[in-house]
Amino acid sequence: MKYSIRRLRLPQDYPAIAELLGHAFSEPTTAENLALEDSKIPAHGNLSRDDQGRLTGHDRYRLVAVDDQDVPVAYGISWRAPWTAPGELNNLLIVSPDYRRQGAGQELYGRFEQWAYEVGASKINYEIREQSEDSLRFALARHYEIERHSFESVLELPGFDLERHLPALQRLTDQGLKVVTLADLPGEEAEARLYELYRETAFDIPGFSGDYFSRSEWRKWTLDLPGASPAQVFIALDGEMFAGVASLVHFEATSSMYHEYTAVRRAYRGKGIALALKIRTIQHALERGAAYMRTHNDSLNAPMLRINRDRLGFVAVPGMYKVVKRLPQGAQTPASV
Questions:
Q1: Measured between alpha carbons, how far is 319 from 310 in angstroms, rounded to an integer?
Q2: How many CA atoms are closer than 13 Å to the CA of 247, on its beta-carbon side?
Q3: Do 83 and 185 lie in a common domain?
Q4: What is the CATH number of the domain that holds 200?
Q5: pLDDT digits (tens, 9 = 90+) for 46-91
Q6: Residue 306 located in a structural domain
Q7: Which of 25, 171, 254, 264 is most buried, with most CB under 10 Å away?
Q8: Strand 256-264 and strand 292-298: pairing?
Q9: Mind telling me which PROSITE patterns this protein's record contains (predicted)?
Q10: pLDDT for residue 316 is more than 90
């Protein structure tokens, strides 16, 4: 294959990138969604250093490999946000199945590693789908290491026995708690309290690193996501206290729901709140006529895996490996490409 590497040309490249992302993600995206996501991100980067000399700030570097008709056949991005852990860059690389093993992926990989050295990163992160054995071998051969494994699980909703699980919701009521939605609690104060619940519980998630979103950024990447809705954010209330939350994103194209976040405050754990919230989200999905639900769990998050798989019947499907490479500081060029 003859190909060349270039920067993105937007908006004309959006449809091709959306198609490529369909080979990496479980749910399809659209050119419109990609344009919306870009609108939330500053157009110009601002990288900096902390007092320990580690890379901070935000920026992104995006490239495509194109064929002789200038159609993107591979796409990659290297980025960091203000909340990314110091020193780190997060990368994504996708090659169309029809163009793999022809050098485009290796060329893009080399360009991104070169950029990492140029900006002084100390660690590169990639996520690789579990079933992509060639990609994993490629990374391991270039001195990446598997740092984490996240499991994906799917619950087929037709035939789900909701009645059998409703007592878990009653047990929550018996403890004096109730489940409401964010739509039931409109206003600035409720949203601020929900943000604090997210921020407090995020640091307990296995594998979480870096800082947490500012409130305005949190809103962009939770409540303002395509398919998100206040009516799909379920909150366990103990009086005025937000004790736990489970939120969903709706994918219209596949008539499915994704668990965007589930968490319970430490003081309320062990009371069946997470299970009750999950059941309430399933009830909502059934009411919406969704075909299935998906979720991801870190391999070390045993309590949530037990809820999803042992109690509710989610079925394991291939998940993701997080592979990382630590870069020697002071080097100017990649050690290997």
A1: 18
A2: 22
A3: no
A4: 3.40.630.30
A5: 999 999 999 999 999 999 999 999 999 999 999 999 999 999 999 9
A6: no
A7: 264
A8: parallel
A9: GNAT (PS51186)
A10: no
pTM (two decimals): 0.87
Length of the chain: 337
Instruction: Mark whether 244 and 176 lie in a shared domain.
Output: yes
Contact status, residue 250 vs residue 290, Cβ threshold 8 Å: yes
Q: Dig out the tokens for 297 from the structure.
A: 């769990």
pLDDT band at 334 (very low <50, low <70, confident <90, very high): low
Residue 82 corresponds to which tokens in the numbers above? 């203000």
Q: What is the DSSP letter of 177?
A: -
CB 319 within 8 A of CB 151: yes
The answer to whether residues 259 and 201 belong to one domain is yes
Same domain for 142 and 164, yes or no, is: no
- Cα separation, 244 vs 138, in Å, equals 41
Alpha carbons 46 and 43: distance in angstroms, whole number: 10
Distance CA 322, CA 124 (A): 10
d(CA 281, CA 258): 10
Are residue 199 and residue 65 in the same domain, yes or no?
no
Q: pLDDT tens, 226-271?
A: 999 999 999 999 999 999 999 999 999 999 999 999 999 999 999 9
The reply to whether 75 and 124 lie within a common domain is yes
What is the rounded CA–CA span in Å between residue 227 and residue 248? Answer: 8
Classify the C-alpha dihedral 178-183-187-190 as positive or negative: positive
Q: What's the CA gap between 103 and 247, in Å, rounded?
A: 41
Instruction: Report whether 152 contacts 318 (CB < 8 A).
Output: yes
Whether residues 81 and 33 fall in one domain: yes
Pairing of strands 88-95, 123-129: parallel
Q: Is residue 19 part of a domain?
A: yes
- Looking at the 3D structure of the chain, how many domains does it have? 2
Residues 6 or more apart whose Cβ sits within 8 Å of residue 118: none
State whether 223 and 106 are in the same domain.
no
* Tens-place pLDDT, residues 282-304: 999 999 999 999 998 887 788 88
Domain range enclosing 173: 158-290
Is 75 within the bounds of a domain? yes
